[in-house]
Amino acid sequence: MCGLEAYADASIGSLGIEFRKRVTIGVELAAKPTLLLFLDEPTSGLDSQSAWAIMAFLRNLANNGQAILCTIHQPSADLFQVFDRLLLLRKGGQTVYFGDLGHNATTLIHYFEKNGARHCEPTENPAEFMLDVIGAGATATSEQDWHAIWKRSSEAVETQEELESIHKDGRSRPPVEATIHSEFATPWVHQLKELCFRDTRAHWRSPTYLMAKLVLNIFGGLFIGFTFFKAKNTQQGTQNQLFAVYMATILSAPLSNQLMVPFLEMRKIYEIRERPSRMFSWTALVTSQFLADLPWNILGSSIFFLCWYWTVAFDTSRAGFTYLMLGVTFPLYYTSLAMGVAAMAPSAEISALLFSVLFSFILTFNGVLQPFRELGWWKWMYHVSPYTYLIEALLGQALGHHAIRCSPVELVTLTPPSGQTCGSYLDTYISHAGGYVTNPSATSACEFCAFATTDQFLENNFNIFYSNHWRDFGIMIGYIIFNIAAIYLLTYWFRIRTGSILGSLKARLSRKS
Question: pLDDT at position 74, please?
């Protein structure tokens, strides 16, 4: 009916003015207006052909039972004939005429002529004639008070009697039982499906957004990978692999800031246009935003993993769990976290500021920059930070249960007591503290390495345990569920409910100003 079948997959910005107006009308129709469809000058900005196409479209809607209230400015004679009835107001909002137009506006013309107006020529536009008669034209004046004439006219009396009859009949009828019990025209699942299609198309039509996401992951993976290229199984190599994992988690900061912008833009459109029209539920909007962004974030993290994992020379046999954490769980977490922060922010600038503050705490207290045993009073933040468990799962699985072979510069040289070998001299210490001796049978210049396995290195220095990786995976899933719940709760609390926090704050500031 809207004549948009051929443009179903087109971007709105690529459409002409006529088809944009058709889309706008279609959006209002999709909301199923309860009484009538109101249009304010739908032909403005259109050429004569496009204006006629829009009015013919509205005529078709009216013929199919849709009540339409439409304002129009200086219509041509052809456009004027499309209308059934006219409410003509003069300056000040006073009624001059209300009633049927008739064929070729003969009813309207007859009303003015019988009340003292000049004769309307057959070639004259009835719309221009009526404006000229009541003195509403550019240079027209009127000596008659057409508002007073209307109030005394038989047409006004008939209109008033019709209104009273409608009121009387309405009061005598039993209440009409509502047949539509839902707030929206379609079920929630259908709303979600259509919104997911819309948001996915919006991302696909924004190549800059997608390319920035993918290029950042590719560049970040290669940069970190080649910074710690082919890390060896020495103490320094293990330390390099540890920081390769830590730096990989930092990449979530720019990715999170990027995805908050379209989330806030779509929310703004919803609040201005789609929520008042009751097109769909806000929960469907939030869910579709999350589901539409998530596949691209998982794809980006997967590309990052391929560029990063084998470049740093992690164990190939451990790649599966590491990908599960970094390629799937990690984007799930930062996507839900970023949208949760954006849900309570009024703008992209504020959301970026809030996220930066929150992310600094998450990143600082995960036990890498400042080991757990040196945190002091802030140890509680170590247990609260989700990156504590993300990094432990990644490091414990990627590095755990491997041998460490110290390089010559990492060995400590000791001299055993006379008559003892290096192995017998350091055996008791090694059994308690760990490490190994490269020359256990030597009786001088013992070469001692402080760590024999990566487990000793991670446990003693960073409180990271290989055996906790599945536990950490479960904890991260818990954080993700918490973040997703926070998206809905914060959106409702700050944007949806009556008397929301931001709305109350804006009202107070406006009263003070």
Answer: 80
SS3 labels along 309-363? HHHHCCCHHHHHHHHHHHHHHHHHHHHHHHHHHHHCCCCHHHHHHHHHHHHHHHH
Backbone angles phi and psi of 437, in degrees to 5: -110, 130
Q: What is the DSSP string of 8-66?
A: TTS-GGGS-HHHHHHHHHHHHHHT--SS-EEEE-TTTT--HHHHHHHHHHHHHHHHTT-
| Residue 183 pLDDT exceeds 90 | no
Q: Angle 454-462/235-250 helices, nearest 10 degrees? A: 60
pLDDT tens per residue, range 304-344 = 999 999 999 999 998 999 999 999 999 999 999 999 999 99
Q: Which of 286, 291, 283, 280 is nearest to 266 (CA)?
A: 286
**Contact between 475 and 389 (Cβ < 8 Å):** yes
Task: Classify residue 6 by its DSSP letter.
Answer: G
How many angstroms separate the Cα of 192 from the Cα of each of 44, 58, 147, 278, 279? 34, 29, 52, 14, 12
- Amino acid identity of 382? Y
Using CB atoms within 10 Å of the CB of residue 171, give its burial: 0 to 12 exposed, 13 to 18 middle, 19+ buried. exposed
Q: Write the burial class of residue 52 (CB in 10 Å: 0-12 exposed, 13-18 middle, 19+ buried).
A: middle
Count, in order, helices (H) and strands (E) of the chain. 21, 7
Cα gap 304→300, rounded to integer Å: 6
Helix (H) or strand (E) holding 88: strand 85-90
Tokens representing residue 120 in the block: 């309307």
Q: What is the pLDDT of residue 319?
A: 93
Neighbours of 421 (CB within 10 A): 17
| Strands 446-449 vs 412-414: parallel, antiparallel or unpaired | antiparallel
**What distance in Å separates the CA atoms of residue 184 and residue 214, rounded to the nearest whole number?**
37
> What confidence tens digit (pLDDT) does each residue in 455-479 have?
999 988 889 999 999 999 999 999 9
